Amino acid sequence: MSDLRELYQQVILDHNKSPRNFRKIEDANRSSEGYNPLCGDHLHFYLKVEGDVIRDIGFQGSGCAISKASASLMSSALKGKTKGEAEALFKRFHDMVTGDMDAPPDTEGLGKLAVFAGVREFPARVKCATLAWHTLHAALKGEDKPVSTE
Amino acid sequence: MSAAYLSLARSGPAETLAGAFDVEKVRADFPILKRRIYDRPLVYLDNAATAQKPQAVIDAIERYYSAENSNVHRGVHYLSQRATCAYEGARAKVRGFLNAAEDREVVFTRGTTEAINLVAQSYGRGHVREGDEIIISEMEHHSNIVPWQMLCEERGAVLRVIPIDDRGELLLEEYERLLNKRTRFVSVVHASNVLGTVNPVQQIVKMAHRWNVPVLVDGAQAVPHAKVDVQELDCDFYAFSGHKLYGPTGIGVLYGKIGLLEAMPPYQGGGSMIRSVTFEKTTYAEVPNRFEAGTPHIEGGIGLGAAVDYVNEVGAAAAYEEGLLAYTTEALREAPGLRLIGTARQKVGVLSFVMGDIHPHDIGTILDREGVAVRAGHHCAQPLMRRFGVPATARASLAFYNTREDVDALVRGLHKAREVFG
């Protein structure tokens, strides 16, 4: 039960139930689609990028608690950040959820996103936690092909 | 199973003796059931994805590789004869299992998917023209949708779909309306991998035959639970996979009526499927070799033969399985906020469900930590998910080695999921 609580932390359950920034941004200048066809998780991201800064970010879609909470927390964390900062955070997040299970997780600089450290113990769910990030990455790069983490 | 079209009973004298089926004895035949997962006993309820393997199947494969390994249908040497004998012996066992009229009607494939593709490509391309129609049902697995869609696209033909009701039963009056003089083929599932529904296949075949239309039955989920008699069903093709019948992966069966198979062109070209080859012209081997190009999955065939022997030996499990299905259905109905998807009157032990706002993948992860293996997802049946308005379901599927204790562990896990998600 303890590792389940590690995975399904209260913050994650809360963001799953009431996802933040869960909306389409009508005047978005970047957008992208993330879809894991085997499991069915499906996310659309909408970004308003001005110069180098992510001014606004919203998403819509459906999926499990992990993918939805990850999208929600990511969107909150990235508002106002530069593209470079977003990419750096992506790398940190990715390293944390795919890191060595026996070493303590490296959550430095991740703030609230550290709640996903428990995902390391559930290798089958890493793809759920990272779908939002890969989708965002595609939006920032201007790629128009749907992204998958399967 | 009172319906005439499918007798769930495997014939055998034990059937009449209540309690003659000894589940503990059966469980002892499956080594994997002894192992623990996260320090809990394994509760394996993902049998519709693949079944576990009894020692007899594992031994048959090991014996083949340690004592008989050789290629089949080729060498004159001793080992090649032994391997050929074992492989063709497996074909004969499958013939008996399905009650096909002759061994030649049993074509080995990689699985149900390849069997359906074989028919779509070989029979389908020879008979389906622009404007023709092919009928499938709303509860098909992608493997019984996509091959027909590909054929329709290539030929300019039309795919028609038999709808289902809210219980998950086919609307036969709609099927009757879909059949017409443009219909060239009907392909339906025997037992649904999502809903568990057992379809009235004999009746479906009879209705198609009135229009002289052949029928393929996808039996992947039916053969592990039901005695299938292809002559009684009078279906033209029947497909199933070895690994869901306690056999190895990578081997499956296409049964076809001999008259149809003999008139069909090859599916793939290569070794084994030829009579003579020159650069000007090749003539093809007889059925079934015509459809088995290349060195076959010899170990798979032998393993499947051992699985058929094993299932025959276990014998009458139908009453036990039916009792367990009833118990599971009842137990799930009492789980917190659970909705069963698929409540047909004739079912095999496949139970799909959703639980309020908890996503099936989260249910799957929580159950996994309890040692309970279920499937979560769309089960390769996306149109069916849309029909029931859910993105995915969790699915528990039963085999004859499952027990009421397994079901109790599942229900305990579901309570835990409710607890975690509040």
From TrEMBL, chain A:
Any one of the GO BP annotations: iron-sulfur cluster assembly
InterPro entries: NIF_FeS_clus_asmbl_NifU_N (IPR002871)
Domain (NIF system FeS cluster assembly NifU N-terminal): residue spans on this chain: 8-128
Source superkingdom: Bacteria
One GO MF term: iron-sulfur cluster binding
Family: Belongs to the NifU family.
Identification of the protein by name: SUF system NifU family Fe-S cluster assembly protein
Organism: Handelsmanbacteria sp. (strain RIFCSPLOWO2_12_FULL_64_10)
From TrEMBL, chain B:
UniProt-listed Enzyme Commission number(s): 2.8.1.7
GO biological process terms held by the UniProt record: cysteine metabolic process
Pfam assignment, any one: Aminotran_5
Domain of life per record: Bacteria
Principal EC category: transferase
Catalyzed reactions per annotation: (sulfur carrier)-H + L-cysteine = (sulfur carrier)-SH + L-alanine
Aminotransferase class V domain location: 43-410
Cofactor: pyridoxal 5'-phosphate
Swiss-Prot/TrEMBL keywords: Pyridoxal phosphate, Transferase
Annotated InterPro entries: Aminotrans_V_dom, Aminotrans_V_PyrdxlP_BS, Cys_dSase_SufS, Cysteine_dSase, PyrdxlP-dep_Trfase, PyrdxlP-dep_Trfase_major, PyrdxlP-dep_Trfase_small
GO molecular function: cysteine desulfurase activity; pyridoxal phosphate binding
Stated family: Belongs to the class-V pyridoxal-phosphate-dependent aminotransferase family. Csd subfamily.
Purpose of the protein: Catalyzes the removal of elemental sulfur and selenium atoms from L-cysteine, L-cystine, L-selenocysteine, and L-selenocystine to produce L-alanine.
UniProt-listed NCBIfam families: sufS
Record-given protein name: Cysteine desulfurase
Originating species: Handelsmanbacteria sp. (strain RIFCSPLOWO2_12_FULL_64_10)
